[in-house]
Design a protein that fits this description.
The chain is built from 2 helices and no strands. The longest helix has 23 residues.
Length: about 70
Protein backbone atom coordinates (compact mmCIF):
# COMPACT_ATOMS: atom_id res chain seq x y z
CA UNK A 1 0.00 0.00 0.00
CA UNK A 2 1.31 3.38 -0.95
CA UNK A 3 -0.83 5.47 1.36
CA UNK A 4 -3.34 5.04 4.14
CA UNK A 5 -5.93 7.62 5.17
CA UNK A 6 -8.07 7.91 8.29
CA UNK A 7 -11.13 7.60 6.07
CA UNK A 8 -10.05 4.25 4.56
CA UNK A 9 -12.36 1.34 5.25
CA UNK A 10 -11.08 -2.17 5.97
CA UNK A 11 -13.16 -5.32 5.75
CA UNK A 12 -11.72 -8.38 7.48
CA UNK A 13 -13.28 -11.66 6.38
CA UNK A 14 -12.29 -15.08 7.64
CA UNK A 15 -13.20 -18.39 6.14
CA UNK A 16 -12.79 -20.42 3.01
CA UNK A 17 -16.48 -20.44 2.14
CA UNK A 18 -17.39 -16.73 2.23
CA UNK A 19 -19.86 -15.59 -0.41
CA UNK A 20 -20.81 -11.93 -0.78
CA UNK A 21 -24.38 -11.73 -2.02
CA UNK A 22 -24.61 -7.94 -2.30
CA UNK A 23 -22.86 -5.40 -4.46
CA UNK A 24 -20.02 -3.51 -2.76
CA UNK A 25 -22.03 -0.27 -2.67
CA UNK A 26 -24.92 -2.01 -0.87
CA UNK A 27 -22.51 -3.32 1.76
CA UNK A 28 -21.00 0.15 2.24
CA UNK A 29 -24.44 1.77 2.45
CA UNK A 30 -25.48 -0.69 5.15
CA UNK A 31 -22.24 -0.14 7.07
CA UNK A 32 -22.73 3.64 7.10
CA UNK A 33 -26.42 3.30 8.00
CA UNK A 34 -25.63 0.99 10.94
CA UNK A 35 -23.06 3.47 12.24
CA UNK A 36 -25.34 6.48 11.71
CA UNK A 37 -28.12 4.84 13.74
CA UNK A 38 -25.64 3.83 16.45
CA UNK A 39 -24.26 7.39 16.64
CA UNK A 40 -27.80 8.74 17.06
CA UNK A 41 -28.40 6.26 19.88
CA UNK A 42 -25.09 7.26 21.52
CA UNK A 43 -26.05 10.95 21.41
CA UNK A 44 -29.40 10.21 23.04
CA UNK A 45 -27.85 8.14 25.82
CA UNK A 46 -24.76 10.25 26.59
CA UNK A 47 -26.09 13.77 26.02
CA UNK A 48 -25.16 15.77 22.96
CA UNK A 49 -22.45 17.91 24.60
CA UNK A 50 -20.39 14.89 25.76
CA UNK A 51 -20.22 13.18 22.36
CA UNK A 52 -18.32 15.86 20.38
CA UNK A 53 -16.10 16.73 23.35
CA UNK A 54 -14.73 13.18 23.48
CA UNK A 55 -15.30 12.28 19.80
CA UNK A 56 -17.49 9.32 20.73
CA UNK A 57 -18.84 7.41 17.74
CA UNK A 58 -19.19 3.91 16.41
CA UNK A 59 -16.82 2.81 13.66
CA UNK A 60 -16.56 -0.96 14.04
CA UNK A 61 -19.25 -3.49 13.13
CA UNK A 62 -19.05 -7.17 14.08
CA UNK A 63 -21.51 -9.48 12.36
CA UNK A 64 -22.30 -12.92 13.67
CA UNK A 65 -24.28 -15.97 12.75
CA UNK A 66 -25.91 -18.80 14.69
CA UNK A 67 -22.73 -20.87 14.83
CA UNK A 68 -19.96 -18.32 15.24
Amino acid sequence: MDSVRDSDLVSMNDGYDIWFQLRPQNILDRYFDINRRADERIEEELRCEVVPKHDIRQQIVFPCQKRC
